[in-house]
Amino acid sequence: MTRIAHLIAASLLALAGASPATPPREPDAPLVMTAMHLHDPWIVADKASRTYYLFTRNEVAMTGDSRLGTMMYASRDLKHWTRPKLVFVLPGDVWAKAGSWAPEVHRWKNRLYLFATFHDPASPLTPNGKRATYRRGTVLAVADKIDGPYALVRGGEPIVSKDQMSLDGTLYVDPKGKPWLVYAHEWWQTTIGTMEALPLNDDLSAAGSAKRLFSANDAAWVVGQKQPDGDTVYVTDGPELYRSKTGALLMLWSSYGKKGYVEGQARSRSGGIEGPWEQLGPLVERDSGHGMLFRAFDGRLMMILHRPFNFALGKLYEMRDEGDRLAVVREATELDGEAYPTHPCTPGHSSFDNAKPGCS
């Protein structure tokens, strides 16, 4: 294409209200997902800049900065990523001393809010048997730009009551525009982890009591984990809410199954956050989980999760909205470079155990 043709194409895009998507240059985006630390990844697809922003906890090996906080990668094509930038640092004078788990960024009331989970093992709560429980909760930070810097809201006090060990808080906005925090009530405190929803005010502070949505062992695929103290515990982790094309309210969430960490889904029978909730089974197994959904700029519904649980890498999937549930179309190995076979007759595939016709 000639330079004049390039200018004409750019002008047409500008008139249409879009920005020309320039492929990242190698010096600007030298990383691929197999070289990135990506535990609990969260992607914001920013249409204005046609850029994907990926948030995860800060890793000193990637940023060279040992402070507790959140780092962000950026990409134009989901394949080539910039080196990470530290966008949030937890001040040293707040209650939390560890964590920075599961950062999520949501737009609310024309600002950008970062939700991230922190804890302090030196701040004890009432013990659960032999387990010494301690403060853990999702805190809130805010910024005017997607790449920060993010500043703590309400001094870093957790959104959920500090006497609960809560984690992985995500923002859900109901059809009436009311915000909710959906979160996991930690198995460490409850033995059987639960998924709960807390109504919020417009400033994203608690507006009432939390509602229990379901327990981890409501799902037939969840396997209890034996602990050194003799207890068998059941894990809830990584909720995200999604409204399907037919109006069904679905939830991605994770726990442990027969093959390790699992990405599953649930559906509200009422279509509302209050449920009741029914479990639809695993989406992805093979020690994979804590996923989230986003729309690629070409319109495809995508999911990113991490695999394996430890030393996690990002894994991308093309998804299909089937109205009453979500389905995996394929693994996007051309983007993430991390290949596993996807044929349904392959052991480990979510439908292998169902002995589909043609599998031997």
Polypeptide structure, described:
The protein has 360 residues and is mainly β. The protein has one domain: Tachylectin-2, Chain A (5 Propeller), CATH 2.115.10.20. Helices cover 7% and strands 42% of the residues. It is globular. 40% of the residues are buried.
Secondary-structure map:
Elements: H1 3-15, E1 42-46, E2 51-57, H2 60-63, E3 69-75, E4 85-89, E5 98-108, E6 111-124, E7 134-143, E8 151-152, E9 166-173, E10 179-185, H3 187-190, E11 194-199, E12 211-215, E13 225-226, E14 232-233, E15 237-243, E16 249-257, E17 260-268, E18 277-284, E19 289-295, E20 301-307, E21 313-321, E22 326-331, H4 333-336
Antiparallel strand pairs: 1-2, 2-3, 3-4, 5-6, 6-7, 7-8, 9-10, 10-11, 11-12, 13-14, 15-16, 16-17, 17-18, 19-20, 20-21, 21-22
In short:
This protein is mainly beta and 360 residues long. 7% of the residues lie in helices and 42% in strands. It contains 4 helices and 22 strands.
The helix/strand class is mainly beta
Series of H and E elements: HEEHEEEEEEEEHEEEEEEEEEEEEH
CATH superfamily, by name, is Glycosyl hydrolase domain, family 43
- Characterize the largest beta sheet: strand count, sense, and whether it forms a barrel: 4 strands, antiparallel
Feature tags:
360 residues; 4-stranded antiparallel β-sheet; globular; disordered C terminus
